[in-house]
Amino acid sequence: MSSLPPTPPSTTDTNSQEEEGNIFSKYYSQLSHQQNMLTDHVRTKTYQQSFFKNTLDFQGKDCLDVGTGSGILAFFCVQAGAKEVWGVEMSRITIAAKKLVQSNNLSSKIHIVKGKMEEVELPKKVDVIVSEPLGFLLVHERMLESYITGRDRYLKPGGKMFPSNSTIYTAPFTDDNLYMETVSKSDFWCNSDFMGVDLSALHETSMEEAFGQPVVGYFHPDILLSEDRGTHFVDFMTVTHEALKNFEIDFSHSITKTAVCHGIACWFDCDFSGSQETVVLKTGPEAPGTHWYQCRLMFREPLAVNKGQTLNGTLTFRANDSFSYDVNVKAGIDCSPRIETENMVFLQDQHYHYLYAEESAVDAQGQGHVRGNEGQV
Ligand SMILES: C[S@@+](CC[C@H](N)C(=O)[O-])C[C@H]1O[C@@H](n2cnc3c(N)ncnc32)[C@H](O)[C@@H]1O
């Protein structure tokens, strides 16, 4: 089969050609954001290890990297023995990626292709697709949809995907400080005489806004109120677009501590299931920190729970036009009469919360983990 010739310096990777319609394109065109991902040691090392421990899947193979960014995963493919790699990338970071490919003398093996995965034309199907399409709580950014578009368009039958599947986990948590902090964000709107204007009609709206934000940051596992985990398994080899756009996570947690439950904590793991070994990327509260942190969905009305009771409910995810999800959080205690709470959370409005559990913010070598994702969209 023929291969693409080395890509000449592009004349289309210019500012004026910046894609419209994807709010992440500008964000990812900046080296500082690519650097933030590259220096997430847990993330980047796990990807490289998953390729290195499955070299049989890469040796002499054609690969596609969906959303290549700086090109790092394409380089790892070559390091693992790939014959050629097409790195598809929608943002202007392609200029930087091409520079790295040229300066590392890999222009005959790595082809950086500027464009959206949904639109680009590649010369052939591939044996392996790699990608890092993971947002916080796995699904924010909705890039998994582009990953499986790559699968549907370009993966040969029997081909491999790295990562191959992922599981979202849930558990109830208690955190008085976080709850009080969230309530007090709206105190300003209680003011009945702000320069002669009564603002209190907006207090309720402000509370909805505050509790509608997912809280992204580390927390200590001690705040979890159950050993049980709600789970949602996503198999990247088979999942459909529809199943990514609308899904539900049912949970049922036997409560292990009497406390006030302030919401549902969520995180995810990802499996890289190669022919030789399965490597797992973990982002839970007991694992070394990553730039995905963990995510907490608050209850507007907290629930007092007793040890031995069961808290159950559903998280309903609906994809939205902001490359994210509206999540309906519904939970109740199985007692008579049933006590329920419900809240809407909008994943694109994340509140980064770094004030807690510094000790869990360590990387795989026990060093302080990269910080400063506040600007993330
Ligand atoms: C999370 S970053 C990962 C970058 C790089 N692969 C890495 O692991 O460091 C995702 C990259 O995919 C790109 N991207 C997102 N959606 C895309 C799409 N539909 N088509 C092409 N590139 C896309 C983004 O611009 C971004 O550079």
Q: Please state roughly what percent of the residues sit in beta strands, choosing from under 5%, 5-15%, 15-25%, 25-35%, 35-45% or over 45%.
A: 25-35%
**Order of SSEs, N→C?**
HHHEHEHEEHEEHHEEHEEEEEEEE
State the helical fraction. Answer: 10-25%
Evaluate the radius of gyration. Answer: 22 Å
Ligands present: S-adenosylmethionine
The oligomerization state is single chain
What overall form do the CA principal axes indicate?
globular
Number of strands: 16
Give the distance, in angstroms, between the N- and C-terminal Cα atoms. Answer: 41 Å
Class of secondary structure makeup: alpha/beta
- Tally the helices: 9
Biggest β-sheet strands, sense, barrel: 7 strands, mixed
The overall average pLDDT, rounded, is 91
As residue ranges, the low-confidence spans are 1-12, 357-376
InterPro entries: Arg_MeTrfase, PRMT_dom, SAM-dependent_MTases_sf
Keywords: Chromatin regulator, Cytoplasm, Methyltransferase, Nucleus, S-adenosyl-L-methionine, Transcription, Transcription regulation, Transferase
Subcellular location: Cytoplasm; Nucleus
GO cellular component, one term: cytoplasm
